[in-house]
Amino acid sequence: MTPPRYKRILLKLSGEALMGEQGYGIDHTLLDAITSEVKEIYELGVEVAVVIGGGNIFRGLSGAAKGMERASADYMGMLATVLNALALQNILENKGVTTRVQSAIEMRELAETYIRRRAVRHLEKRRIVIFAAGTGNPYFTTDTAAALRAMEIGAEVIMKATKVDGVYSADPMKDKSATKFDQLTYIDVLQKDLRVMDATAISLCMDNNLPIIVFNLNVSGNIKKIILGETVGTLVTGRNNA
Predict the structure, then answer these.
(1) Which of 10, 126, 212, 213 is the least crowded, having the fewest Cβ atoms under 10 Å away?
(2) Number of domains making up the chain
(3) DSSP-based three-state secondary structure for 194
(4) Which residues, including other chains, have CB under 8 Å from residue 132's CB and lie 6 or more apart?
(5) Torsion over CA: 229, 101, 23, 29 (sign)
C-alpha cells in the first residue's frame, strides 16, 4: 500500500457538516461514517487532531445578528463545539480509537484543559486529539482555532471538510456557472474573497506556509485519498504550480 503522504494532520469539521440534511443537531448516521473514515487513516499510522465547530447547534454571529451581545453569543457557540466534540469522542471510542478532548475553556469534568505539549504527547502516543471551544476567546472563529492549533502541534496540513468538492469562484449551490479551482495561493483567496476560511486563519497559514486542502466530506473515501497523496478538492498554498 502507498505510504501516507502526511504524518500529522489537522481535520477541520464544521458543525454544519455534522447535521447532514437535518436542520439542527447531529446526524448520527453521518457522524458514524465520518468517524469510520477517521479511524481508517488513524490505522494507517497518521496522527490525527480535529477542530470542530458548533454551527449545527448555535452560531455566535447569528446570535449577535439577532441582538445578543457578541461576546456572550460567541461563548455560547464555543460551548456548542464542546457538545460536538464529546459526540465525536464517544463514537470514536466505541470504534476502539483512543481519544482525548481538550477544551480552550476549562471544564475539568468533561475535557482536559488545552495544553500544547500535552496535546502533542497524546498524538505521539497514538491518541486522536479533539480540540473544542475554539481559541477560548470571543471574536475568533473555529477556522482561526484550526490554523492556530495546527501550527502549535506541528501539523503538516489542514484538511477542511465542506459540503462541496473544493473552492469555487462563487457559491456552486446558487450559481451554476461557478468554476472550481484545483489550486490557489493564500493571496488569491484573500484578494478574491473566496471564503475558504476567514481572513485571520488564511493569514496565519500564509505566514507559516501551512497548506490547506478543502474537500467534500460527503464523498466516501476522500479523507483516505488525500492522506495517500491523491488530488482531491482544492489545495491552498503559497505557490500556484498549475
Answers:
(1) 126
(2) 1
(3) coil
(4) 52, 78, 81, 82, 84, 85, 86, 101, 102, 103, 104, 111
(5) positive
| 160 belongs to a structural domain | yes
Summarize pLDDT for 129-172 with one digit per residue, the tens: 999 999 999 999 999 999 999 999 999 999 999 888 999 998 88
Q: Is residue 49 in a domain?
A: yes
Higher pLDDT, 61 or 3: 3
Radius of gyration of the chain (CA): 17
Q: In the block, which residue shows the cell 469522542?
A: 89
Strands 180-181, 47-52: pairing kind: unpaired
Evaluated on CA atoms 227, 230, 233, 237, the torsion sign reads positive
Reported as a single tens digit per residue, the pLDDT across 13-27 is 998 888 877 888 898
What residues make up the domain containing 41? 8-237
Confidence of residue 241 (pLDDT cuts 50, 70, 90): low
As a whole number of angstroms, the distance between CA 135 and CA 191 comes to 26
CATH at residue 121: 3.40.1160.10
